[in-house]
Structures are given as C-alpha cells and as structure tokens.
Amino acid sequence: MRDKIFKKNTDLVDFVFDKQVADVFDDMVNRSVPGYQTLIEMMGLIVKTYGKDNSNYYDLGSSTGAISMALGLNNVHKNNKIIAVDNAIEMVNKCKANLSKKLSNFDVICSDINKINFENASIVVLNLTMQFIEVEKRQQLVENIFNGLVVGGVLIVSEKIHFDSKEKQKQITSLHTDFKRANGYSELEISQKRQSIENVLITDNIEKHIERLNNAGFASSICHFQCLNFASFLAVK
C-alpha cells in the first residue's frame, strides 16, 4: 500500500507504529531509506556466513518481517529458530502473517526488546531499531545481546546516523531529502514526517556505534555498509 500518511496538513503528533503505519510500512521504508533493499539482501549473505547449526536468530524491531524472511529463506544451517520481536502489536500481526506464508520455524513476540532474554544466538539483527531505543538504555541492550551470543556469533546494527561536522551533516541531509523527492514524496510530506519523528528517532554517529560495540566486548566491529546517512555495523563475538 502506498504511503500517504503525511500527504495532507494535519496537527502533528510524535510518530508511532500504529495500524496506519503498519499498512504502508514497506512502501515507506523503501522510499525513505537509501540502500534499504541492499541491507535486506546482505542478511542472506550474513546468515550463510555466520549462522550456526542448533542456534537462534533474533530479529529485533522486526516490523513486517523483512529481515526474518531474508534470514529464513537464505538459511543453510540446521535446527535454527527465528525469533522476531516488536513492541507494536500491529507490526507483530503483519509479521506473523507474512512469515507464515513461507517459513515454519519461527516465533513472533510482542515485547520490549530490552526485556528479552537472549539465548544461544548466532545472529542478532537490529535493523532501524536502536534509533528508537532510549539513549541511556542502548549500551545495556548491546551487552545483553553480547552475553546471549555464541562465540563467533554476530550482531548487525543498521541505523540512520549523523555527522558531527555541520557542513557534512548539511550535505548528507540535502542528498537524503533529494532521495525522498525522487521517490515521490512532496515537500509537505517530507516536512511533516521530519517534524513527527524528530523527537522519537535519536541518531548516533559512526564512532559512537563502534565504541558501544567495542565496550560490550565484541572481538571485531566494523561499518560494513553505508549509503548517505544510513549505515550498518557488523560485530563478531
């Protein structure tokens, strides 16, 4: 379904993942996030390389299930379970419906990811999720994930990022706005979405992401993908 949520002038409130957003989420994210399809496709490579037999794969902030689907359809390992977690019931319902069409060994849980007990994980993915977690809770979340990973397991964190340089931030913001225009969003839609989400989505810079992963104890942490102001980090235990 086409995203038309901000097509008309409205009294703006903070962005929430309700039914209206769930219905258009796939269109919204593809038209708003540069490189989104590449991020999904990378999951196919990552699960083949880092997935392990007899282990769990976690998709945190699973939304409509694109990451879970990519992990499941590309999995070459044995006895794995995909655990998709989201705190928005409308997203959970969409995710269940989507995964049930093509996968079997999965659970979809409606929960705060900060309350999840991670167990026997070889892959954990936070795809455009950390940015919605309270800043003061992010380090502890990464440490909880680290503790639940098997040796050689990986955490993938894909996020919108910012730059400390005002000049660089201005340049990248301009290009991101052009990207949204090229995908059919009007000036009104771009402006209203920005105002709605600015108090909800809090970004980090690349250095902070790497620092957080290193502090948690990961043996290797790299930025393995970046497109404009979106980046993905791969951390190996």
Structural write-up:
- With 237 residues, the protein is of the alpha/beta class.
- The protein has a domain at 40-160 and 205-236: Vaccinia Virus protein VP39 (Rossmann fold, 3-Layer(aba) Sandwich), CATH 3.40.50.150.
- It is 42% helix and 21% strand.
- It has helices at 19-32, 36-50, 66-74, 89-100, 138-148, 166-182, 187-197, 206-216, and strands at 56-60, 81-86, 106-110, 121-127, 149-160, 220-227, 230-236.
- The chain has a seven-stranded mixed β-sheet, sandwiched between helices.
- Helix 3 links the parallel strand 1 and strand 2 (81-86).
- The longest helix is centred in the last third of the chain and has 17 residues, at 166-182.
- The model has no long low-confidence stretch (mean pLDDT 93).
In round numbers, the mean pLDDT is: 93
| Sheet with most strands | 7 strands, mixed
Strand content: 15-25%
User: Poorly predicted ranges (pLDDT <50, ≥5 residues)?
Assistant: none
Helical region count?
8
Tell me the radius of gyration.
17 Å
Alpha carbon gap, first and last residue: 39 Å
Oligomer: single chain
Widest beta sheet: strand line-up = 3-2-1-4-5-7-6
- Classify the fold: give the CATH topology of the domain at 40-160 and 205-236: Rossmann fold
- SS elements, strand count: 7
Sketch the topology as an H/E string, one letter per element: HHEHEHEEHEHHHEE
Q: What is the CATH level 1 assignment of the domain at 40-160 and 205-236?
A: Alpha Beta
Helical fraction equals 40-55%
